[in-house]
Each structure stands twice: as structure tokens, then as C-alpha cells.
Automatic annotation (TrEMBL):
Pfam families: Zn_protease. Residues 6-140 form the Retropepsin-like aspartic endopeptidase domain. This is RimK/LysX family protein. It comes from Lysobacter gummosus. Signal peptide: none annotated. It comes from the Bacteria. SUPFAM superfamilies: Acid proteases. Gene3D superfamilies: Acid Proteases.
Length: 149
């Protein structure tokens, strides 16, 4: 019997260090790295080290816009599902999901046309989680936006 936590193909992820209380994430074991949609990002130097600031709209009800910053962990080429290569900034942050917390690498990208603002790749889920592709939102669901009258 496995001691790994079962996830569905989509889940609600929390990135507490970035102030993101809930963001819809697609679990993609075909992708090596994880990606987070940002509306804008900028680089700067703090205490002699490279940092990146960024702004995003996680999409959760009442979440509004989030602005965060993190040290630049790496910068490398990433090939998307269409075969296009782009250079992306990577950060390390805590992922809280299904009662487990772990530090993961995330690249900052433009996922504007995608249904999920976050993609969790296989390195983020390895050794802790197992995926059931027939199920979704096993550990909580994002509340739907209620239109204002």
C-alpha cells in the first residue's frame, strides 16, 4: 500500500510564501518543471543578489491581484508543449497541497491563454504524490466567482 498522497489531474494549490491562498493548478507529469502565470515581472538587485518581482491574479474569489518577490534561483531555457524554447526565470517557494508542504522550483511565464494559471510538473509532485488522472479537486475546490449585480 502506497503512502503517497493521491492528487487529481487538477487541484487547488497554495503558495504561502508568495501570499497566494489558492490557485487552480493542472498536474502535468509530462512537464518536468512547474510554471506560474504572471501578468508582469521585473528584475532588481537586493543585497547584491538578483531578485524578481511579479504581479498576478490567482483567480480565486476575493483574491484580487497579488504582488510578490523572490530571489532568482536560476534562469534557463524551457521548451513548451508546442516545441518553442524561451528563457525563463525560476524561483523556489513553498507549495502547500493536500496537507503536505515542500519547496519547489517554479518558472514565471505568460500562461494567459491557458485554463490553469499554474502548472505543476513532475519534479514538484515526485516522491510525495501520485496522480489519478480520472479525478480532480480531491483536496478542495476553488469557489466560483459570483457576478456582482
Amino acid at each position: 500500500m502506497s503512502s503517497k498522497i493521491v492528487l487529481g489531474w487538477r487541484e487547488l494549490a497554495v503558495l504561502p510564501s508568495l501570499g497566494i491562498a489558492g490557485i487552480r493548478a493542472k498536474i502535468d507529469t509530462g512537464a518536468r518543471s512547474s510554471a506560474l502565470h504572471v501578468d508582469a515581472h521585473w528584475r532588481y538587485v537586493e543585497a547584491g543578489e538578483p531578485w524578481v518581482g511579479f504581479r498576478l491574479s490567482p483567480g480565486a474569489v476575493g483574491a484580487g491581484e497579488v504582488e510578490a518577490a523572490a530571489p532568482v534561483f536560476d534562469e534557463r531555457e524551457v521548451t513548451d508543449s508546442g516545441g518553442h524554447r524561451t528563457r525563463r526565470v525560476f524561483i523556489r517557494t513553498v507549495l502547500s497541497l493536500a496537507g503536505a508542504e515542500r519547496e519547489i522550483e517554479i518558472n514565471l511565464s505568460d500562461r494567459r491563454g491557458m485554463r490553469f494559471p499554474m502548472l505543476l510538473g513532475r519534479t514538484a509532485v515526485a516522491q510525495v504524490f501520485t496522480i489519478d488522472p480520472a479525478r480532480s479537486f480531491l483536496h478542495g475546490r476553488a469557489r466560483r466567482r459570483v457576478p456582482r449585480s
